[in-house]
Amino acid sequence: RPKNFPPGPTPLPIFGTIFSLSLQNPLKDFERLRKHYGDVYSLFIGPTPVVVINGLQAMKEALVTKGADFAGRPQDRMVNDVTERKGVILADYGPAWREHRRFALMTLKNFGLGKQTMEERILGEIQHIMEPLEKSVGKTLSPRIMFHNAASNIICQVLFGTRYKYDDEFIKLIVRFFTENAKIINGPWATLYDSLPMIRHLPLPFKKVFENYESCQKLASPLLTEHKKTRVPGKPRDLLDCYLDELDKVGDEGSSFSESQLISYALDIYFAGTDTTSNTLLTGFLYLMTHPHIQERCQQEIDCVLDGKDQASFEDRHKMPYIQAVIHEMQRIANTVPLSVPHCTTNDTELMGYSIPKGTLIIPNLTSVLSEEGQWKFPHEFNPENFLNDQGEFVKPEAFLPFSAGPRMCLGEGLARMELFLILVTLLRKFKFIWPEDAGEPDYTPVFGVTLTPKPYCMKVQLRAEGELCVN
Ligand code: HEM
């Protein structure tokens, strides 16, 4: 360890400290190491030092106060080789990342893209979720594919101006490739790839990740060809058109925008916007079914606020403090991106008195903040009171960081919050969701990955009478 570097377990030659962590799910080990070494400690992936940041105080100092120092992304890991260092999520801190991030934020904010607003698109997609639910009244259904496809279609409309049927081959393949890759990227083969550069060219199971990513690019590239044929310059229908307009403006030279970037960039936003939102919904509905009194209180608030209205609007959230608290609590407990996305220091810097050299890999352990004792009234249970004050008003504690913080913070937060609100309110208004009698005890332990996923479960669906819980 360099001088004054954060402490941690003693590394072994070649393997570093990988034996200190369970490769299946290291979250408990991270917690154990925090108790032993403090909020900032270090590990070694092979010979590479890694600093793990825990707790609100250290997280704020790194990601916000010293945001620029901690806003890099490592460039020498398997995922970088797979994506050929294109796209936005894994781009290093610098002009190309900044321009692509700004462009995505601007395009997402420009809700008026085409004719529909973002809210209309989401409400339109919700109608497609209603169908399988209505067919399942009185029966049980597994909600995984339904939520995944809904989130996927919302982002596909923004990116490509199109939605896909829930059994469309294109989406099924993309989802399969991404799911397989997410598993391998988090598994032991990726750790070996990162630790031992000499094995990178061998025909080992990690080759599959490269093949899958290439297949995704091949699947998405006809969309670009079709857009180039049918677009009207200056009248963008979606993000692809906006990007092509931008290319017309800036040209290829001296700009970070290029056609070869575009597919990877779109796939990045697709991936970031699908798995996250759908897993949050899956976790949320699991807890709402097993906490029926919380579900009922949500329905009471919805019935009263939407009394006589056709459908919910995002503005209604201001009149629904309890729903707001429940959605935030769903996100806190879902802990959807438990270790954020790895960062990297861009300068020699300091954190909580330790020295951290430029180029050090950083893991922001968001899990440690979302359940940190002292920050929450009920850190270890599902309880919307975590977000309500004594007057029943919605309040958001500083430790609510599921989207991370600072310059690299999630750029889809606005879209994700709109989706979560409109989907939850619309479904709870019409249906009651029940944990099936024959399903046994619910298992809340998630499956570890880049995103945490609840174990597969089924829900029983009942129709509700309109406004049945409104006492006014
Ligand atoms: C509940 C839903 C979501 C959660 C919990 C979530 C969480 C996160 C987290 C923790 C990061 C890493 C931030 C960091 O490195 O410090 C991130 C990055 C990112 N998210 Fe999300 N996200 C969600 C939804 C979305 C959606 C809907 C989109 C797309 C519109 C999106 C696009 C991105 C992108 C592009 C990045 C990379 C930003 C950068 O590197 O500058 N996310 N998200």
Automatic annotation (TrEMBL):
Predominant subcellular localization, coarse grouping: membrane
Name of the protein described by the UniProt record: Cytochrome P450, family 2, subfamily X, polypeptide 9
- What InterPro entries is this protein classified in? Cyt_P450 (IPR001128), Cyt_P450_CS (IPR017972), Cyt_P450_E_grp-I (IPR002401), Cyt_P450_sf (IPR036396), Cytochrome_P450_fam2 (IPR050182)
Location in the cell reads:
Membrane
The entry sums up its family as follows:
Belongs to the cytochrome P450 family.
Q: Which cofactor does it need?
A: heme
Lineage, broadest ranks: Eukaryota, Metazoa, Chordata, Craniata, Vertebrata
GO cellular-component term (any): cytoplasm
Residues where heme binds: C410
| GO MF annotations in UniProt | heme binding; iron ion binding; oxidoreductase activity, acting on paired donors, with incorporation or reduction of molecular oxygen, reduced flavin or flavoprotein as one donor, and incorporation of one atom of oxygen
Going by the UniProt record, its keywords in alphabetical order are: Heme, Iron, Membrane, Metal-binding, Monooxygenase, Oxidoreductase, Signal
Q: Which domain of life is it from?
A: Eukaryota
The Gene Ontology biological process annotation of the record reads: organic acid metabolic process; xenobiotic metabolic process
Any one Pfam family match given in the protein's UniProt record, by short name: p450
